[in-house]
Structure formats: C-alpha cells, structure tokens
Please model this.
Amino acid sequence: MIDTKMDWTSHNFQISDVEFNLFKTLIYDKAGIALSPAKRTLVVSRLSKRMRKLKITSFEEYYQLTTNNTSELQHAIDSLTTNETYFFREEKHFEFLKSDILNKCASGDVFKVWSAASSTGEEAYSTSMVLADKFGLKSNWSIIGTDINQSVLAQARKALYPLSESKKIPREYLNQFCLKGVRSQSERMLMDAKIKKHVSFEFLNLNAAFPDYINNFNVVFLRNVMIYFDLETKQRLVDKIADVIKPGGYLFIGHSETLNNVSSRFKIIRPSICQKIK
Model:
C-alpha cells in the first residue's frame, strides 16, 4: 500500500528472507549474478532509493512491480549491478596491448575490440587512445562497449567525464584525444569526436545469446565480471566469448579472476592475460 503521508526521507526499509530471495533469484535469472547473503545490505541500500522515489513501502511490492513492468525491471537491474571503473585501470594490460599485441599488427589490418562490461566507458575510451596512437584515426579499427545497465551506457555515449578522472591518462593522450571544458564545463573533459567515431556502446546481457555484431574480435576485455558469477555461468560465458575471438586473439580478465576449471580454450600468457588456442 502507498502511504502519501509517510516521511519517505527517513523511512527505514527492512527486507525479509523471502523478499531477499526473490531479488536474488531475479538478478540471477536476468543477469547471471549470484548474490550471497552478505549482499543483503547492498540490496536494501540500492533498491530502497528507488522505492522512496516511487513511495513503495515493501520489497515484495517493488518486486511485483518489476515483474509487471519492463522499464522498472531495468531500473532494478541497473540498481543491483556494480559499475566501478576508471581510465587505464590495470595499466599493465594496456602496456601489453601496446607492446605485445599491436606491435605484431600491420597498420592496415582490421582490429576489433570488445569491452564486454563497459560501464560508463572509461575502459573502451582508454583502449581507443592506445589504438589511435598505434594505427591513427583514419585506420580500420573499432571498439564496442556493452553493458546490461542502461544508465551507465547513456553516460558512456556522452563521453563526458569529471576532469579529476584524467589523472591516469598519459599526458600525450590527454593532449591528443581529450578536450578540456571551459566556463561552466571547466571541471569536465570530453573525448575528442575523432576518437568517439571509432567507439560504440550497446545494451547486452552477457548471459543471453550474443547478437551477430559480436564477432571476430582481436581482443576482449572481461575484467572483474566473473567474480559475480557461479562456476556454471562462468563456464558458459567464457565458452561463448571464445567463439567470438579470432584464433590467437586475447582475453583480459581481472587479477582476482582465473580460468582454472572454467575453460581449456585459452592459455595463460601473463597473470590475467589469456590467448585463445582453440
């Protein structure tokens, strides 16, 4: 029941075991994310913000809304997915990309990269600067970023970031590929349009069938994604990703992740850097 007289700013939401299990099952079925009991507080914190806005009093009522409203279901998924990222995260991955992968490619080669959980786009744009530095801005390279969270995809497409996020970007890349805002935008930076035209962002659920445009990649970034999945989901996902990587192509994963017992289709080149063998 909706109580319009309630003080929603101070309302203390409580989630029952049954309600927690409803959302645990929902996010697993829709996104493959396995929520442990330790995530109970996270579920309450993130969903209660939306519930306050809608003036909904119980998690069961909000769950029922998500089952009958596609738009609200997406809001719930957006709320429960984690989107931590920054420019040139795991710097050694980009060093390896530049020195060991790109140096073996001819400048005229088609080169495709997939940022498989792109969040707000920093990973994809970091990669674009490395590729632009190697191949130039008129070459045949492209990057696609995908995510299950529609709100972060909208931010990624804008390519507009707080200037404070520029600290990890190499100075030469800042000068070539980033524009500093002026006046009311003086604390922001924008990716140059010459970079943006090589980068696209699309909604994609990694646990659903891949669309046709997900194919023939030289490099796939799947960093800090598998930590949210159980073993069966990891195995199924990595097998699908192996299918869309070119022979000898590369998969980057997070440093806390492993392909042990997950896939035999890659060999470990360096910690968290894998090469497709079959």
